[in-house]
Amino acid sequence: MAAMDSILDRFRADLDRLYGPRLARVVLFGSRARGDARPDSDYDVAVFLSDLNDRWDEVDRIAGVAANLLDETGAVIHAMPYRIDAYAERTPLMHEIRREGREL
């Protein structure tokens, strides 16, 4: 658990540096949040931004942060950007994120 927390702390800090005040919320979800992950499980992370003009540009930026951590730690982070108002949407994915998510 300590290694997982260290990886997630680094990822959050890197996102803070990248986005500053645009970073509204970062939520771990999936098997790592539920506590039933295998050692080789990836990290599913939703990145909520106050301003999301070009989603694919943000996907690339976040992927760069995740790639640096992969190189350094071997951890696979699958992170996707969303508008902050998407958190309240009534979709299956957002319901899962709200239900089992762990704020970073």
TrEMBL record:
Name of this protein: Nucleotidyltransferase domain-containing protein
Gene3D superfamilies to which the protein is assigned, alphabetical: Beta Polymerase, domain 2 (3.30.460.10)
MF terms in GO: nucleotidyltransferase activity
Matching PANTHER family: NUCLEOTIDYLTRANSFERASE, PROTEIN ADENYLYLTRANSFERASE MNTA-RELATED
CDD domains, sorted: NT_KNTase_like
Residue ranges of domain Polymerase nucleotidyl transferase in the record: 9-59
Keywords of this entry: Transferase
Top-level taxon of the source organism: Bacteria
Protein's UniProt keywords contain Transferase: yes
Cross-referenced InterPro entries: NT_sf, Polymerase_NTP_transf_dom, Type_VII_TA_antitoxin
